[in-house]
Predict the 3D structure of the following.
Amino acid sequence: MKILLVDDEQELVSTLAERLSIRGIDADWVTSGEEAMEKIQTTPYDLAVLDMKMPRMSGLELRKKIQEIKPHMRYIFMTGHGSAKDFYSASSEEGADCYLVKPVHINTLITKITEVLAQ
Amino acid sequence: MSLFKKFKPEFLSYTATDSGPFKSLFNFKKLWINRILILLCVALIPLICLATFTFMVTKDDTEIEINLRTIRLVSNAKRTISFFVSERKAALSYIIRSNSYEQINNNKQLAIILQSLKESIGGFTDLGVIDASGKQIQYVGPYDLQNVNYSSEEWFKEVAIRNHFISDVFLGFRKVPHLIIAFKHTLPNGAFYVLRATLETERFNQILSDINLSGSEDAFLINKFGTIQTPSRSQGNVLSKTALPVPQYSEHTEVMEVTDSQLRKIVIGYAYIPETPFILMLTEEKTILMQPWRKTRNMIIFFVALSILAILVVVYWVATHLVNQVFLADLKRASTLHEVEQSSKLASIGRLAAGVAHEVNNPLAIINEKAGLMKDIFSYKEEYKHDTKILGLIDSILASVERCGKITKRLLGFARHLDVSIQNVDIRAVIEDVLGFLVKEAEYRSIIVTVDIEEDIPQFETDRGKLQQILLNLINNAFAAMQDNGHLDIKICRVENDFVAVSVKDDGSGIPEEDLKRIFEPFFSTKTKTGGTGLGLSITYGLIQELNGKLGVVSKFGKGSEFTISLPLTNISKKR
């Protein structure tokens, strides 16, 4: 299992990747959509954890682009913003598997990753 | 006063407390008074004009009728008296022309003439023949007037100049009121004699009493000096002076109005009787003559008063109804504005909360991950693995982060539901969300909150944001009504299969019975001095109606209140 973490908060995403690695999950991290697209070209990922609000390219836009080249990848959305608009855009999109509001307990995230990949 | 209180419009006792856009657009008292005055003017001015016109016309008509009647009566009497005098004058003229001086100067012959006059036309008392020296040389009649000398009498001097004469009524030698007609006849030798006849004044009295007079009318003769010539009911005895003014000469019958010494208005009909010194007078008090008109006037006044009363009632009702409609519309406007403001406030608070939560959530997530990593590192390192103090400190950081996370998530959740209208709602989650905001206050004030939810309550479609607002308002009100250590019981059950009932019961101050029926009215508040707008329950009531629900209340003053809302489980989306 290999996952990609995408969030513009470097402090958050790097620490999260490290903690997942400690628990045996191979996780790479990037801080923008553009970097994520580059990573995707070279590395096969099973799942991407995407921040919904990022500068230049949002989590939803990024997911659409990834889907064009990696149609079987799964996604978990994460956001600090809990607006209804976000919630419904995320849940109504095809292929959106999960929506989590920060801060997320590490065990919750691992459980969700396991669940989404098991579907 | 108490009757006015009973019918006193509600808006008169309304005291506006709002300002800005919520301020009432009208001064209802002024508006009401203006409407009443305008309506009264429109209704009363034509009525009063018409009544005044009718009043004047009927009065003028009555006066004209009185004048005409008076003129008719006086004219008739004048003709009769004039004819009476003319007839006797003509008879004497005929006698003096058809008899020689010798015949007339014969006492027996004179007696025969008198007898003939009495029997033919009547009205004569006596006859006398007076020579140029004024001595009555022949006399036939009831008095002893033979040889009486009239040379110093005014009438004798007059007849000597004018050839004939009709006297006023006077006493004369016989000391009895009478009048005379005298004719002068000049003899061939240049000397003259006078034939004098006395007329009975009784005949005048008879003629005047034959006039068809009403009870207080008076008809009598006066001479040009105002001396009464015939008996009068109101003016005094014969030969006394009348108190009335002597009317100006006119050939025709006239009517005039005078005020007597007792300030009574007297209507006088008068006529100068031609070739006599007499003026016929017919008098009557005007107030008595106007009696029939006063009846009409009283009828007019009665109907006008009745109409004014009816107009007052209708005007009061119409103006009150009209202004009350404006008042209610204005209240509704202010209430809607308040509602919009409250919704807008809530939406703003929601957006603010969501913004803050978002900004706080990212740093919280970083703290969470950094503290988590620290814990991971310490947990895997042998030297720290058993250091409970360090691990405890990190756990404490993580617990605080989790607590902050819950708060921001609750805020986000609350704000999120304000944006959305109809959705599937779990009533348990809504109660939990709402109580989440009040749990700290309950702890500080030692208020015990119990929630009892029946197990078979399904999720149902409704507007979650409105439901949150309704429950928040009701629970907030209950908290405000309770003292510290109070009890709040929330019970949710299914009713008649299609409804869910939520009851919020407190043991607070309760609501007085007289206020109970008004608590859902907009702007009704017993807390205006402490900042209450009187809109909380009104808005709650409106929101429940929007959800097709019902709101009931049971309260005992001093014991507490129970508000129960019932919401449909199925039909809200269909109705919408």
Observations:
- The CA atoms of residues 7 and 77 of chain A lie 10 Å apart.
